[in-house]
Specification:
The chain has about 325 residues and is of the alpha/beta class. It has a domain of about 210 residues: Phosphatidylinositol (PI) phosphodiesterase (TIM Barrel, Alpha-Beta Barrel), CATH 3.20.20.190. The protein contains eleven helices and eleven strands. Strands 1, 2, 3, 4, 5, 6, 7, 10 and 11 form a nine-stranded mixed β-sheet that branches. Strands 8-9 form a two-stranded antiparallel sheet. Strand 5, helix 7 and strand 6 form a beta-alpha-beta unit. Helix 1 packs parallel to helix 4.
Length: about 325
């Protein structure tokens, strides 16, 4: 039985296990599944509009190569930053695919190039979520990520400042507001807190084991940690029990919550079921929350363990 009752479910790129990631239909579907937060990865357009998209590239989820073949760079990639917002709206979006083989990354998800999906701005998504909060009486939060700030800075664009201004305009200013801001770039996240004076709840994303050495530094400006869950698992002992690193324990000592990524029902690895993976996450790893492509399954799992879903304790 899970002991800690305050757990957070974050819809990773929306209901991305069922519909093309980061599309408004995927976000609407995720909203109806009642997670605590919906995630927004953010990349700037040429005219400085934050676009909700996972990568700085366009070619692995859109028909950009067909629509704008002359905009390809020397590395044979198409970059969001080279397109105006109006140009981006002309593209069709599909499930993530391999640009070399044109095959879907997750073969059993929504069929490639079926139906009609589009890119959208951060403002569009916030208005959708806030509108649904009003019409349903729910209070689901947003969980934006600043993507590749160094890349943007090299292009003369201050993505963090632009995003913070939009968040503030929509009422997301402090830790009391239902917004968590995340970033992999530690220098940039620290800048957001200190130079840009953000009072939002900040989460430092990490993807390498070496990052564990910097927990005390992260705690000086961040409120939470976002590790890849496989960083915390060390394997099983002779009795078959999962062994873990001290990452979550040390983070909790420093007052940091831990939201791990990414829990996928169609990418289980050594686990026999999604429920087993979630139980390992919450019981063994002692996570405070999870990012998942299948928010309905994670919400159902917690309900089956007679847990109430609550916003992140502040």
């Amino acid at each position: 039985m899970i002991k800690n009752t305050k757990k957070t479910i974050i819809a990773h790129r929306g209901a991305s296990g069922y519909l093309p990631e980061h599309t408004l239909p995927a976000k609407t579907m995720a909203y109806a599944m009642h997670p605590d937060f919906l995630e927004q990865d953010l990349v700037l357009s040429k005219d400085d509009i934050p676009i909700v998209i996972h990568d700085i590239y366009l070619d692995n989820i859109t028909n950009v190569a067909e629509k704008f073949p002359n905009k390809v760079r020397n590395d044979n990639r198409f970059y969001v930053i080279d397109f105006t917002y109006n140009e981006l709206l002309q593209l069709n979006v599909t499930e993530r695919f391999d640009v070399k083989t044109d095959n879907a990354i997750f073969k059993n998800r929504f069929p490639l190039w079926k139906s009609h999906f589009k890119l959208h701005s951060l403002q569009d998504e916030i208005e959708l979520i806030q509108g649904l909060n009003k019409s349903t009486g729910n209070n689901i939060g947003i969980y934006p990520e600043i993507k590749d700030p160094y890349f943007h800075n090299k292009a003369g664009k201050d993505i963090s400042r632009i995003v913070l201004k939009i968040l503030s305009d929509y009422g997301y200013k402090t830790k009391k507001d239902n917004c968590i801001l995340q970033c992999f770039d530690a220098i940039e996240l620290k800048r957001i807190r200190i130079e840009l004076k953000s009072e939002l709840f900040l989460v430092q994303l990490i993807e390498f084991k070496e990052n564990e050495k910097h927990l005390k530094e992260y705690a000086t400006y961040a409120d939470g940690l976002g590790p890849w869950y496989k960083l915390i698992l060390k394997g099983k002992d002779k009795q078959g029990h999962w062994q873990t690193t001290s990452l979550v324990k040390e983070a909790h000592k420093l007052g940091l919550v831990v939201h791990a990524y990414t829990f996928r029902a169609d990418d289980l690895g050594v686990f026999s079921s999604f429920d087993e993976l979630l139980e390992i996450g919450f019981n063994t790893l002692k996570l405070d929350g999870v990012f998942t492509d299948f928010p309905d399954k994670a919400v159902s799992f917690l309900k089956n363990y007679q847990l109430f879903l609550a916003p992140l304790p502040i």
